[in-house]
Amino acid sequence: MNSLLSAQGVLLVGAAACLLPAGNRLRAAVGLVSQAVATVLVLLVALPVALGGTPLEGTLAWAHPVGTLRIRLDALGAFFLAWSLPMTLLGSVYAVGYLRRHFDTERHVGVHYALLNMTALSFILVYTADHALVFLLGWEIAALAAWLLVIWDYPNQKVRFAGFNYLVSTHIGLIFLVAAFMILYAHSASWDLGSFGRWLQENPGTERNLVFLLLLASFGLKSAFFPFHSWLPRAHAAAPAHVSALMSGVIHKAGLYALVRFILLIGRPDEWMGWFLIGFSLLSAVIGALYTVGQRDLKRLLGYSSTENVGIAGLGFGVGCLGLAWGDPALTAVGFAGGLLHVLNHAFFKCQLFYAAGAVYQSTHTVDVERLGGLARLMPLTAIAFLLGGLAISALPPLNGFASEFLIYSGLFTGQPIAPWAKVALAGTAAGLAFVGAVSALSITRAFGVVFLGSPRDASIERPREASAWMLAPTLLHAAGVVVLGVAPVLGLALVQSAAGLALAALPSSGGDLLAPLRELSATLSRIGAISAVLAVAIAAVWWLRARFGRQHVLRHVTWGCGYTAPNARMQYTGSSFSWDFSRHFRWLMVLLRRQRAPQGPFPTDAYLVADCVDAVERRLFSAIKRSDDSAAEISRNLREDDPRLAFAGALLAIVVIAGLVALSGGWLQ
Q: Where are the alpha helices (DSSP H) in 19-69?
């Protein structure tokens, strides 16, 4: 526990030092060194616990009414800490290359690195908290630090609006969380999460159901589940690439951590909770995947895919909940292990994809898919990194996305004796997950093909070049993790096994090896990964041999264009045309906007067609706010403030409400 406290002290001192009057290079160096030291200190204690070691506990006396602050690091918290801080450090390294143009200006880059330190500090607080107030403190530090990181480019009005949108959304989630904690404190008379858990386990019923729904709404807002996701695409499009990567891959995983933590506190959840979580997650996965298909902004596309992937992880947790409700150890272990492994895998490939998108932006100053093209020849390493991340997010072997989704499929196609209708429902969920995978493959094919293949579409974009080593190193390290965890999934399962085993504590012991099904699936995954890796290496070898020893003088010519002998870049597929045939089947769900000017005359020069997919939830929300504002303004104009009847009516209504509450306080409100 001393290492964790030392790591927090190092991060705080480093954050303060980043604010001192010094050069930007020195500030960045201080931030990197302090994060590196803190990461080592945390890994020294987190890795042994994550791999099955004894949990760590500690207390800190505090004044009334807070009381004793309890800190506890078990396998679940250790699993999240084991990769959250290293990935934050890699994001800070990437920031050196991304923000280097500001190092010789008056911009205070030290503030940015101080906020990255505070983000890392919030992880330690949230993942080790056994006290509600410590948990809320870490939760709020993460939210405020992420908001300030998002609005780095604050002179831009769109960036400020995206940051405000995120700030409001995350604090609405905080309201739900505080409401749930108030209910739990009122019944347990303690701020300890363990006391919350005892009350939840001993008091099933309406109030526990309400607490579950409040927590799910809060954690859904934090992790950007549909329909609580509308802040996410705006924030990711506005933030620097490394901030988008950390938000999607690391910061908002705190919501999934909290979801699993409180499911474990409940112990044996009601069966409806598992089904509700599965339905909620499947809806998020499907909608998130569909919205990736129609995006022009590459970072918005990746933002919507985060909504898709938290839904996939939620499916695993829902399967685990059903296993707990049915008393099925195998289903419990597979469900939670699949969900947690997907959280880890998503962190790897999503950070990698955002880093690649950031390299594209740095080189071309745009992430508009319709303006880009042909970047693979000029940015080969970035193209390879994006392709690997895209294959992983599409759950194709031998990359890591396949391993976690394989576990979730194994839970959905469980061979355990359950009701026929439940088997049908789980099979239907598996079909939905397969649809999500197909749509994800379509969107990534579209993005990679349009951005990196073909020819440049916009002559005004300057000739791009490969990103700097500061940006490439974190990208390629994540790519290496994607490959290693896919070829050797046993490494990822070793990290999640103990955390998934915590859920089995709520089940009566049968005397056998409760994690045996997980080990069998691990062996199967390892064989699949090895075979796929051999095939991938063989294909790469054939490609290299063909390029090295094949025909040297290949005759190249333009693609046949229906007899047209002077093709140009505008005759390529655009992103919109690539996905139009698919998108038009979902017009009822995806709001497709078209701006166009039809060609006129025999030689038109100013015709254009611009198609974009906007967020239906956000569009309807803003429309409702506008109507409400107009209605309130109309009522205000019609009311006379000096009319005594208005004051009398308001006082009478208040008296009636107070009297009603007093009367009810003797009944169910007591």
A: 24-50
